[in-house]
Structures are given as structure tokens and as C-alpha cells.
């Protein structure tokens, strides 16, 4: 590993010590965010049974967190324009872990929902700020790989959160499962604080009025391409969460009759997401974002179709393909937002992630209606309809990039100071 030295522009060079410190720290941030957010997903059948609620109602433990996170992201993105991004992310990671720990200790349904909602609010400082930090601090030649590695951290966190809680809940209780994960995430927050260098390119806009934030967001929503990326995030995440939410109910029922631990191990499919997100980021640097995004959408659709097979191999294979396609699409779309956003990367990232988590909250809960009224076939039809719209967005983005002459692969827009 080479010694740390700044590039002529002050960016962290690919391969430098600073570059890898940033990547490892953001990997920990992604791990903590997604493990805390999605640790309840394999526990939904247990919540439904213990608290006597429907599958759709049990999904509120996740949907409330993602819905509150969506709202918090807008505030966090604006706050980060005038604050130390490192401090914002560290505070968010720590508070969210403490709220999840409180959720593990509360015995009643409404207390659990309240604590999960507060955890979602607390996490708002991580996702929007992370992408903005990377876009500002990393040399453009390594930006795709860095964002891919950050998304890999979210994939690893999503996998670890689901698998660990499934196993611990099976041998102990869901209270112990959520509490153990919360302590692990507090350790991850400490490691993050020790590794991440302070922001060097963030423009500190202390006291930026609300009207100015609204004007920035309004300009970004009128951009010909950014709203298509926001819609992509909404649909991509909504499909992914819908399938994962109700796969557990399907696999616990005949003819599969799997135990919670066995279902949790299926979430090891996230390993493929870790690999595919990093690979997609590197491919986008070389080939451009549009073809990789289209490939991600088609791979996700293939996974949904494969899951329709009435056997365990089809169910598992479908989840694997869906995971690969989802992380390909999300890695490319989130990185593309940073490249297009110009001076206000934090605002654009907050809008993208607002759409992303609203998709998780809304479509993830709506999918419960399809499960209750039409079973797995209805859930898949719902997912494929959303993916068709997502493919149309990706093709429109590809056409727009060709007409406008998008930046050459690897040549991201430099951090701009306004």
C-alpha cells in the first residue's frame, strides 16, 4: 500500500493510505446502517405470532424505520452542508444503535414500533452524507470503486443483520438478537470515528436559510436526468424489500417448512451483493453508468421470475439473482447522482435517498397486501410491474447520456465550491 499523499486537487488518490482509511470507515458506516435497519426483517413472522398482528402489520417494524429515515435524510443532507460530515455520521450511527438497543428491551408492540421509528430518524445522517463525502474527497478515477465498496458495506451489514438475528433468535429470543447486534454496531461506530479523516472539500454554509435549500432541491427536481435516478432508487429499493419481507413467510410455510435459522442462512445471498456492487462500480468507471444500470434491472427481474419456481432451488436462486441485480443498480444509480449533482452533492444525495427509503417503506408495506390476497405469485407480479417502470427510466437515462455526451468513464465531475 502506498503512502498517503494528496492528488494535485487534494483528492485522496486510489491506492493511498488515506484512500483505504476512507473506504474502510465508510464500509463500517454502511455495515452499521443496514444491519440496524434490516435486522428485524427475518423476525417479522415471530413478531406476527407473538404480538398477534398480520404480516403487513409486522412489516411496520421495518417500514416505520425506513419511512422516518426518508424524512430524516432531507434534514441530514441540509445539516451536513454546514457541519463536519464525520461528526454527523458518527452521531447518527451511535444514536441509532442505542435506539435499537432500547427496542430490544421493550416488551410491548407499540414501544417496539416507537423505538424502531426513532432508530430510523437517527440513521438519517449516514446515507446522504456518506455519498456526498466520497464524491468530495475521492479522486474521480477511484470514485466508482469507493462507492461500490461503501455499498458493499451496506450489503454485508444487511446480510449480517439478518443472519445473526435469525440464528440468535432461534436459539434464544428476538430481544437478545437485536440487543447483541446493537452492541456490535456501537463498536463499529467507534472504529469509524478512529479511521475517517475530516472533510477537506466540503463547503461550510453555516446558517444557509431554508428557502435556499428549497431552491436547490427545486432546481434538482427540474433537472432532466436526476429525477429519473430518484425514481430508479424508489423502485429498486421497493422491489428488493418487498421480496425479502415476504420471502420469510413463504419459506416458513409448506412445502418448504424452513426454520428461522435456515431462512436466515438464505440471506447469505448478500455475499453476492457485496461482490456485485464493487464490480458494478468498477464497470461503471470503465464502461459508463447506463449499460450497467440496465443490466442490473434485467438481472433483478430474472431473479423475481426464477423465484416463482415451486422448489427450494428456485426460491434460493431467485433471491441470489435479485440481490445481485439490486446492488448493481443501486451502486450505479447512487454514484451517478454524485457525478451529476455539481456543487450541491449533499442535497442531491438526500433526494435520491429520500426516494430510495420511501420506496422501501411504501412498496414494502403495499407488498403485504399482495401477499395476503394473492400469495407469492401476486408479490412477483407487483415486483415485475415496478421493474418495468424502472427499466423505462434506465433506458431514458441511457438515451439522454448519448444525446448530451456524458463524461467519459472514470471522469467524474470534480468537487465544486459554490
CATH level-four homologous superfamily name: MFS general substrate transporter like domains
Which second-level CATH architecture applies? Up-down Bundle
Compute the average pLDDT.
84
Largest sheet: none
Overall, the morphology is: globular
Helix content: over 70%
CATH topology: Growth Hormone, Chain: A
Topology, number of strands = 0
Spell out the helices and strands N to C: HHHHHHHHHHHHHHHH
| Distance from first to last alpha carbon | 34 Å
Radius of gyration from CA coordinates: 20 Å
CATH C-level label: Mainly Alpha
Describe the structure.
With 418 residues, the protein is an all-alpha fold. It has one domain (17-200, 211-404): Up-down Bundle (Growth Hormone, Chain: A), CATH 1.20.1250. Helices cover 78% and strands 0% of the residues. It has 16 helices and no strands. It has helices spanning 17-38, 44-51, 55-58, 60-80, 85-105, 109-122, 127-137, 143-171, 174-195, 210-222, 226-252, 260-266, 270-287, 289-306, 312-340, 345-404. The longest helix has 60 residues, at 345-404. The protein starts with 16 loop residues before the first helix and ends in a 14-residue tail after the last helix. Its main location: membrane.
Amino acid at each position: 500500500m502506498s503512502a498517503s499523499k494528496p492528488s494535485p486537487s487534494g483528492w485522496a488518490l486510489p491506492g493511498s493510505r488515506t484512500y483505504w482509511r476512507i473506504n474502510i470507515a465508510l464500509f463500517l458506516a454502511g455495515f452499521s446502517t443496514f444491519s440496524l435497519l434490516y435486522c428485524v426483517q427475518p423476525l417479522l413472522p415471530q413478531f406476527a405470532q407473538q404480538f398477534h398482528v398480520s404480516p403487513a402489520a409486522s412489516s411496520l417494524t421495518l417500514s416505520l424505520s425506513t419511512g422516518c429515515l426518508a424524512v430524516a435524510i432531507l434534514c441530514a443532507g441540509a445539516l451536513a452542508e454546514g457541519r463536519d460530515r464525520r461528526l454527523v455520521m458518527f452521531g447518527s450511527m451511535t444514536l441509532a444503535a442505542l435506539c435499537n438497543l432500547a427496542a430490544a428491551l421493550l416488551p410491548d408492540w407499540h414501544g417496539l414500533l416507537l423505538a424502531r421509528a426513532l432508530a430510523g430518524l437517527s440513521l438519517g445522517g449516514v446515507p446522504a452524507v456518506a455519498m456526498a463525502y466520497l464524491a468530495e474527497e475521492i479522486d474521480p478515477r477511484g470514485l466508482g470503486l469507493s462507492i461500490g465498496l461503501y455499498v458493499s458495506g451496506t450489503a454485508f451489514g444487511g446480510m449480517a443483520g439478518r443472519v445473526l438475528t435469525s440464528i440468535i433468535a432461534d436459539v434464544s429470543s428476538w430481544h437478545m438478537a437485536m440487543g447483541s447486534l446493537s452492541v456490535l454496531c456501537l463498536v463499529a461506530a467507534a472504529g469509524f470515528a478512529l479511521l475517517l479523516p475530516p472533510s477537506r472539500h466540503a463547503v461550510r454554509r453555516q446558517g444557509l436559510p431554508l428557502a435556499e435549500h428549497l431552491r436547490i432541491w427545486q432546481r434538482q427536481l427540474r433537472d432532466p436526468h436526476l429525477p429519473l435516478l430518484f425514481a430508479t432508487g424508489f423502485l429498486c429499493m421497493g422491489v428488493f424489500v418487498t421480496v425479502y419481507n415476504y420471502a420469510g413467510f413463504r419459506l416458513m410455510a409448506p412445502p418448504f417448512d424452513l426454520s428461522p435459522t435456515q431462512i436466515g442462512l438464505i440471506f447469505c445471498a448478500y455475499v453476492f451483493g457485496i461482490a456485485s456492487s464493487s464490480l458494478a462500480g468498477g464497470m461503471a468507471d470503465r464502461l459508463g453508468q447506463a449499460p450497467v444500470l440496465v443490466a442490473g434491472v434485467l438481472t433483478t427481474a430474472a431473479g423475481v421470475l426464477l423465484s416463482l419456481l415451486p422448489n427450494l432451488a428456485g426460491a434460493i436462486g431467485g433471491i441470489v439473482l435479485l440481490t445481485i441485480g439490486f446492488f448493481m443498480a443501486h451502486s450505479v444509480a447512487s454514484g451517478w447522482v454524485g457525478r451529476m449533482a455539481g456543487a450541491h452533492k449533499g442535497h442531491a444525495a438526500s433526494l435520491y435517498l429520500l426516494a430510495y427509503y420511501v420506496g422501501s417503506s411504501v412498496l414494502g408495506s403495499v407488498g403485504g397486501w399482495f401477499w395476503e390476497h394473492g400469495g407469492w405469485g401476486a408479490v412477483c407480479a407487483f415486483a415485475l410491474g415496478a421493474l418495468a417502470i424502472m427499466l423505462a427510466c434506465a433506458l431514458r437515462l441511457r438515451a439522454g447520456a448519448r444525446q448530451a455526451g456524458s463524461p467519459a468513464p472514470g471522469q467524474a465531475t470534480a468537487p465544486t465550491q459554490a
